[in-house]
Amino acid sequence: MTTARDIMHPGAHWIPSHETLDRAAQLMREHDVGALPIADENERLCGIVTDRDIVLKCVAAGHDPSRVTCGDVAEGTPRWIDARADVDEVLREMQGHRIKRLPVIENKRLVGIISEADLARHLPDDKVAEFAQGVYARA
């Protein structure tokens, strides 16, 4: 059985919700990633900030990324998956919520993140096509 741990990108990094978007952008550059899970003061997942969020919700809206926090742009209920979850459960979660990145949690700790690229590297073409159809197709 292929699990979330088998396909995730290990070593994902949190960013605290009180950190600013300019700091988030710096960390994304340092780690060569396009998204960071956001942690609250108790190190619990409270969202994800993406490079797209920084551009659209902050810069394009005329706000200063050194004054807007990650918590300010976090929206909705954060989704995550247990490291032991089967890959079919991963796909259901991502497709069902039309999300492109999924934090992987083990013992209440962030251990990795699954992105579209991880799916493409580890899954057969038909599963990747099914994912793309579920996430990108308009209802």
UniProtKB/TrEMBL annotation:
<dbReference type="InterPro" id="IPR051257">
    <property type="entry name" value="Diverse_CBS-Domain"/>
</dbReference>
<dbReference type="Pfam" id="PF00571">
    <property type="entry name" value="CBS"/>
</dbReference>
<dbReference type="InterPro" id="IPR000644">
    <property type="entry name" value="CBS_dom"/>
</dbReference>
<feature type="domain" description="CBS">
    <location>
        <begin position="73"/>
        <end position="130"/>
    </location>
</feature>
<dbReference type="InterPro" id="IPR046342">
    <property type="entry name" value="CBS_dom_sf"/>
</dbReference>
<protein>
    <recommendedName>
        <fullName>CBS domain-containing protein</fullName>
    </recommendedName>
</protein>
<keyword id="KW-0129">CBS domain</keyword>
<feature type="domain" description="CBS">
    <location>
        <begin position="8"/>
        <end position="66"/>
    </location>
</feature>
